[in-house]
UniProtKB/TrEMBL annotation:
Name this polypeptide is given: Leishmanolysin-like peptidase
Pfam families for this protein: Peptidase_M8
Swiss-Prot/TrEMBL keywords: Hydrolase, Metal-binding, Metalloprotease, Protease, Zinc
GO terms under biological process: cell adhesion; proteolysis
Cofactor(s) needed for function: Zn(2+)
Gene: lmln2
Organism (species): Oncorhynchus kisutch
Coiled coil: none
EC number from the UniProt entry: 3.4.24.-
Active-site residues annotated for this sequence: 337
Record keyword Flavoprotein present: no
Family, per entry: Belongs to the peptidase M8 family.
SUPFAM superfamilies listed in its UniProt record: Metalloproteases ('zincins'), catalytic domain (SSF55486)
Length: 543
């Protein structure tokens, strides 16, 4: 049996005697154990009774709660490195792009942006997408023509695979509004040069083709010379991409002859779409292996300039149930994963574009390397907007103040798709999201998305980041976090004030802090309403 750990401390005080009684709150209120999934409820501490107390019984509660997995872990980098990324050329008749391999299968169901149903994530409420053999085909040419030159809010089309499990009413009522809110927020933050006509994704030539013409002087250079008879479908992580979302593919039997044989016809495409989000709600192996993972994402198709056109967000279904579910936490997690899929990815750093002298998406030059290591060993993003945003946040003019990247589990590349928590605690793109009350869509993250060169960003919607505000260029370094130079860090393991001054906290560290310690909030006075008599706690951390 797991220990309770969270106790109600009763202090009985009279003129000549004081007694202490400890009551396990998980036994007193069994429903509380749901918050800890059968684990330890926490730890109780005795606070001295103020001298002015005159009641015979004074109930005093200091509830210190550790929530296993309270920090929501992101496994984007782990998943993304194993995924095929196919580049869609601006000219569909141009050379085929380079790709990697993938082998997943499935069936699809479409949820259009205009549907407004009570249970939009259940199969009965969907409009099933007809296969290519069931619907009349209209000939489409050059659907992905060069984009218009005026950035407009990005249109994210959400598509739910038909093989996603049928969700319960509770799951649907939680997931659907959270995803809708997250998509709406991102659409209001980012603008793109919109895809005209219908969005069509590309097929992986290395999957449907056995032989490719490689003679650069041939008319059919880089085109398929022989079909792979075992070719079946295209995938994005565990999602099968419907044929209607894909370009056709053909075989050219001679290097210079215009004659071709169509293997698969052109799909209908998706109207009014700049990014196609495949949303998969399922209890996957990765969900089961990582209890602190709420969701994960990948990008799987990009345009000729590198901007992601399609990706998957997997929602771990088990996290949609239970008393501990947080709507705001789910919204923030979906935004976090969407930002990854849209370009905040170490796999795409090398394709970011410099739009210093042109409009995003129009004539921008490749940036090349955007990261470097500073003299302390910290890997940083050094792009104009990121440097400027961090300088403004820390109130520093240091020209080398790039955006610091997480250094935990980075592999041989040394790169991460997350900010360093010591410096940007509370950012939407930190490696682990904690209490939704402290997570924000911060200016440094929006600056990074601006510096991809693919988006025009609405910086007026940035949320102010409190952590480290005005602390200077040395803030958050491993060499300074222990020297009491900043009130944001602490030493030892005592009690103090959480940096937002809304909670009392205990000085702790975690895997992302590299030994630096901060005051993590405690849930204090959680059960005052259950007590017969109590006096207020001293307000140690008033706002």
């Amino acid at each position: 049996m797991a220990s309770c750990g969270m106790k109600l401390v009763a202090v009985r005080s009279t003129a000549d005697v004081m007694s202490v009684q400890q009551i396990c709150l998980c036994d007193l209120f069994p429903e509380m154990r749901l918050l800890w999934k059968g684990g330890s409820c926490g730890r109780a501490m005795i606070m001295p009774s103020p001298p002015s107390l005159s009641r015979p019984w004074v109930w005093m509660v200091v509830v210190v709660i550790w929530l296993p997995g309270a920090l929501e872990k992101c496994i984007f980098d782990e998943v993304q490195q194993s995924v095929t990324v196919v580049t869609t050329p601006t000219d569909p008749d141009g050379p085929h792009p380079k790709t990697t391999a993938s082998n997943n299968v499935g069936l699809q169901t479409r949820l259009t942006a205009s549907e407004d149903t009570a249970n939009p994530f259940q199969i009965p409420s969907f409009a099933l997408q007809l296969s290519s053999s069931q619907r009349p085909r209209r000939k489409r040419t050059r659907e992905l023509a060069p984009p218009t030159n005026h950035p407009q809010p990005i249109r994210i089309h959400t598509w739910v695979p038909r093989d996603s499990p049928t969700l319960s009413q509770v799951e649907s009522e939680r997931l659907e509004p959270a995803v809708r809110e997250a998509v709406g927020i991102v659409s209001n933050l980012l603008s793109v040069n919109r895809v005209p006509g219908h969005l069509l994704l590309s097929r992986n030539i290395n999957k449907y083709c056995k032989f490719i013409w490689r003679n650069a002087s041939a008319a059919n250079y880089n085109k398929c010379g022989r079909a792979n008879e075992n070719y079946r479908t295209e995938t994005c992580l565990d999602v099968i991409i419907p044929d209607d979302h894909l370009r056709g593919c053909s075989v050219y039997s001679e290097p210079d002859a215009p004659t071709m044989t169509v293997i698969r016809p052109e799909g209908a495409g998706l109207p009014d779409t700049d990014f196609l989000l495949y949303l998969h709600a399922q209890s996957t192996d990765k969900c089961r292996a990582e209890p602190s993972v709420l969701a994960y994402a990948v990008h799987c198709q990009t345009d000729s300039l590198g901007r992601p056109l399609a990706g998957v967000v997997v929602i771990c279904r088990d996290r949609m149930t239970g008393e501990g579910y947080s709507h705001q936490g789910t919204v923030q997690t979906v935004i976090h994963e969407l930002f990854h899929a849209l370009g905040f990815s170490k796999e795409l750093f090398s394709t970011w574009r410099d739009c210093s002298y042109s409009q995003p998406g129009m004539g921008c030059s490749p940036r090349g390397q955007v990261t470097n290591t500073d003299e302390t060993g910290q890997v940083r993003i050094y792009t104009q907007s990121v440097i400027r945003a961090l300088q403004e946040h820390l109130l520093s003019t240091d020209p080398d103040l790039g955006g610091p990247l997480e250094n935990l589990d980075v592999g041989s590349s040394g790169l991460s798709s997350h900010w360093e928590s010591r410096v940007l605690q509370g950012s939407i793109m930190a490696a682990a999201l904690g209490d939704p009350a402290v997570v924000c869509v911060d200016p440094v993250t929006l600056a990074a998305l601006q510096d991809t060169g693919w988006y025009s960003v609405n910086h007026s919607r940035a949320q102010g980041l409190v952590w480290g505000k005005g602390e200077g260029a040395m803030f958050g370094l491993r060499s300074t976090c222990h020297d009491n130079s900043s009130s944001f860090f602490c030493t030892g393991s005592g009690l103090g004030c959480h940096y937002l001054h809304r909670h009392k906290g205990e000085c702790q560290t975690d895997a992302h802090l590299d030994g630096c310690r901060i005051y993590k909030p405690l849930m204090v006075g959680l059960l005052h309403t259950y007590l017969l008599q109590f006096d207020r706690f001293p307000e140690l951390c008033s706002p």
